[in-house]
Amino acid sequence: AQSVTQLDSHVSVSEGTPVLLRCNYSSSYSPSLFWYVQHPNKGLQLLLKYTSAATLVKGINGFEAEFKKSETSFHLTKPSAHMSDAAEYFCVVTQEGNQFYFGTGTSLTVIP
Amino acid sequence: GAGVSQTPSNKVTEKGKYVELRCDPISGHTALYWYRQSLGQGPEFLIYFQGTGAADDSGLPNDRFFAVRPEGSVSTLKIQRTERGDSAVYLCASSLTWTRSDGYTFGSGTRLTVV
């Protein structure tokens, strides 16, 4: 069985400070992991993906995530938050088959 | 087209009515997926097409839901005898292949409200 747990439903940071959005996954085999962002009334946009290559993955808009098998984690980080980063973020795992399993999402607020 | 297009963007229907939701995937993408996102939740898988055939429809909640992709491009999600619990955003996504390492490209969704 596969699943993801996003540990924080809401995260609030000040503009210019680091962002950390936490994700733990459950998977029987080597998973593929993704982070998607959803701005209000917009479609889901792929930020980055891990597919068994380098464990530190760089994505768009300065985001990156590190796959840690020993901790079954795939946390999303960014060194300096921007106002435009305010959105809903989803951690996603897939394994066998083609279903993507989404977490419940983390709402990121950026305070000016 | 440049992205995944879903129409309509919003649909309000009365309980018991039939609705169709349309998805135009990116040209050349062979895999097409339907997801449903309820308020405050992450998207949940409904059905996946590889070409014209439904490769996995295990996420369809019941037999009121049906989807087709007759020519391997445009797909239509059909809901019969709609219920208030069907209210959600229905998302369509496509990918170039069925390989699980591909990320999907999502459309903006159809917001369905059943009153």
Task: Supply the key terms.
heterodimer; A: 112 residues; mainly beta; 12 strands; globular; B: 115 residues; 7-stranded mixed β-sheet; 4-stranded antiparallel β-sheet; 0% helix; 48% strand
| Helical segment count of chain B | 0
What is the overall pLDDT average of chain B? 92
CA gyration radius of chain A, whole angstroms: 13 Å
Radius of gyration of chain B: 13 Å
- For the report, how would you describe the main beta sheet of chain B? 7 strands, mixed
**Low-pLDDT sequence parts of chain A:** none
Distance between the termini of chain A: 41 Å
Order of helices and strands of chain B: EEEEEEEEEEE
Helix content of chain B: under 10%
Task: List the secondary-structure elements of chain A in sequence, H or E.
Answer: EEEEEEEEEEEE
Instruction: Name the beta content range of chain A.
Output: over 45%
The largest sheet of chain A is: 6 strands, mixed
Structural class of chain A: mainly beta
Shape of chain B: globular
Pick out the low-confidence regions of chain B. none
